[in-house]
Write a structure and sequence with these properties.
alpha/beta, Rossmann fold, 6-stranded parallel sheet, 24% strand, binds 2'-monophosphoadenosine-5'-diphosphate
Length: 271
């Protein structure tokens, strides 16, 4: 029987995950089906149980269910626990494993596709919501020299880094602390791009040759990327590659094979 997988969210109609996983399955010769599942806002756990009972092997979880998915899982990977959210479920004989592949997807995209070394880099992460939280551990593990978290509400940035203990080079605060600092990589994990709002970045945050990375995708050049360009960022990227790379990590968790993201990325970019 064909193994079944799905992405679950609300809304879900525009998800690219079915297309991504179909491409990975073809490439890796895996017999599997992958669909998009709309769950009612108050019906996430029920929908997961039904899918599992119907022979489902695993799921991707997207907005707004990532925190609920963490609670539903019987076991969590360390990276899911520290992210405080789950984007991948694997159904096992004795329970549900919850994982989070968003952060490793971001790191893989920046380091492997864009070829920007994170080891030894000065990284600025903007925002302190779920999107920012999920990428802190993978960035630290990638060996960054420094990681600053700046948020409109400074206390949230301070609180977000607390679980990581006191580490040299790890700081959280408001945008004010950025004056006189420069960074090799600046990542936008705020939702400001969704409403086209600008962020109060001081002059000089973008070091020579720096990369500006917006975690959103499919919106063309966002306000953040346009501002970054005019402030001197040498390279710009949206978050499409992160989407593809997190999907590849989920695929690896389920199927034990790592798909090559490059041809799939090329196909999506062309479309
Ligand atoms: P997500 O799960 O996508 O990260 P979230 O938890 O709602 O979403 O967090 C949104 C983030 O974007 C927050 O860091 C928010 O800042 P506050 O914590 O101060 O609310 C940030 N954000 C949203 N709109 C913003 C704007 N116009 N300027 C600056 N930061 C903004």
């Amino acid at each position: 029987m064909t193994d079944r997988y799905a992405v679950i969210g609300n809304p879900i109609a525009h998800s690219r995950s079915p297309q991504l996983h179909a491409a990975f399955a073809r490439q890796c010769g895996q017999d599997m089906a992958y669909e998009a599942l709309l769950a009612p806002l108050d019906g996430f756990a029920d929908a997961v149980r039904r899918f599992r009972a119907g022979g489902g092997r695993g799921m991707n979880v997207t907005v707004p269910f990532k925190v609920e998915a963490m609670r539903l899982a019987d076991r969590l990977t360390e990276r899911a626990r520290l992210a405080g959210a789950v984007n991948t479920l694997r159904f096992e004989a004795d329970g549900i494993l919850g994982d989070n592949t968003d952060g490793v997807g971001l790191v893989a995209d920046i380091r492997d596709r864009l070829g920007v070394p994170l080891a030894g880099s000065r990284v600025l992460l903007l925002g302190a919501g779920g999107a920012a939280r999920g990428v802190i551990l993978p960035l630290l593990e990638a060996g960054v020299e420094g990681l600053m978290l700046a948020n409109r509400t400074p206390e949230k940035a301070v609180r977000l880094i607390e679980p990581f203990g006191i580490r040299e080079g790890l700081h959280g605060g408001g945008f004010g602390m950025l004056a006189k600092h420069e960074f090799d990589v600046v990542i936008n994990a705020t939702s400001a791009s969704l409403s086209d709002e600008g962020l109060p970045l001081p002059d000089g945050v973008f070091a020579d040759g720096s990369l500006a990375y917006d975690m959103v995708y499919g919106r063309g050049e966002t306000r953040f990327l346009a501002d970054a360009r005019s402030m001197g960022a040498a390279r710009l990227s949206d978050g499409l590659g992160m989407l593809v790379a997190q999907a590849a990590e989920s695929f690896l968790l389920w199927r034990g094979v790592r798909p090559d993201t490059a041809p799939v990325m090329a196909e999506l970019s062309a479309a």
